[in-house]
């Protein structure tokens, strides 16, 4: 279970290890700063490509992401924290403007459709004001099942799983898990019917 307490002297893990475990960590750690710069530099290079540069786009995405399936298309711009914790299955389509803050893993299944300006947000921050002031943060993973459709402007919050074949309507804010084969809309997203 993740710890939302800052490390004590007995905790000899690196900040990266703490981050990946979902525990509080400091993103100002030099190893994390270097990894963040590398990911954002690759994303910037991808974002600077044109539609006529598909082989270059694919090569940049293969270097940036944890995994990208066959026949998956991602349109720039794409914004990430690291990139390495973001994975896509086969035959996905991502429209322009995806923000995927991959402090924790973001796992996207096969045949997923993502509308423009979607945000997948894994970072969390402590409620305790002193910990926030000291810049501690944590994260929780996001999982998007096969054949999900996220409409334009959807926001998926930390720790959320969305079941296969589910549709999330444009502008919805998903704050808790959604089962398979439902339509969810609104802020916070609520299930309106099975599909």
Helical content stands at 10-25%
N/C terminus separation: 34 Å
Strand content of the residues, in percent?
Answer: 25-35%
DSSP strand tally: 20
Name the overall outline.
globular
Number of H- or I-type helical stretches: 4
Q: Give me the CATH fold name.
A: UDP N-Acetylglucosamine Acyltransferase, domain 1
Cα Rg: 17 Å
- Secondary structure category: alpha/beta
Q: What composes the largest sheet? A: 7 strands, mixed
Whole-number mean pLDDT: 95
CATH class: Mainly Beta
Compute the number of structural domains.
Answer: 1
Low-pLDDT stretches are none
User: Strand order within the widest sheet?
Assistant: 3-6-9-14-17-19-20
List keywords for this structure.
195 residues, alpha/beta, UDP N-Acetylglucosamine Acyltransferase, domain 1, 7-stranded mixed β-sheet, 5-stranded parallel β-sheet, 4 helices
Short description:
This protein is α/β, with parallel strands linked by helices and 195 residues long. The protein has four helices and 20 strands. The model has no long low-confidence stretch (mean pLDDT 95).
Could you explain the architecture of this structure?
With 195 residues, the chain is α/β, with parallel strands linked by helices. 21% of the residues lie in helices and 28% in strands. It is built from four helices and 20 strands. The strands form four sheets. The chain has a seven-stranded mixed β-sheet with strand order 3-6-9-14-17-19-20, with no helix packed on it. It has a five-stranded parallel β-sheet with strand order 2-5-8-13-16, with no helix packed on it. Helix 2 (30-47) packs antiparallel against helix 3 (54-64). The longest helix has 18 residues, at 30-47. It is globular and about 50 Å long. The model has no long low-confidence stretch (mean pLDDT 95).
């Amino acid at each position: 279970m993740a710890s939302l307490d800052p490390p004590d002297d007995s905790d000899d893990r690196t900040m990266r290890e703490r981050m990946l475990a979902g525990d509080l960590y400091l993103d100002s750690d030099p190893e994390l700063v270097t990894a963040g710069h590398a990911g954002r530099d690759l994303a910037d290079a991808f974002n600077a490509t044109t539609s006529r540069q598909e082989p270059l786009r694919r090569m940049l995405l293969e270097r940036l992401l944890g995994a990208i399936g066959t026949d998956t298309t991602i349109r720039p711009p794409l914004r990430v924290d690291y990139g390495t914790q973001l994975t896509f299955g086969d035959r996905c389509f991502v429209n322009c403007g995806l923000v995927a803050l991959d402090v924790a893993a973001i796992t996207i299944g096969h045949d997923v459709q993502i509308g423009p300006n979607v945000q997948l947000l894994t970072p969390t921050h402590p409620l305790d004001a002193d910990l926030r002031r000291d810049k501690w943060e944590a994260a929780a993973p996001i999982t998007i099942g096969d054949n999900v459709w996220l409409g334009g402007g959807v926001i998926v919050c930390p720790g959320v799983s969305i079941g296969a074949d589910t549709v999330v309507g444009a502008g919805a804010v998903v704050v808790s898990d959604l089962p398979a084969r439902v339509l969810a809309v609104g802020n916070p997203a609520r299930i309106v019917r099975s599909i």
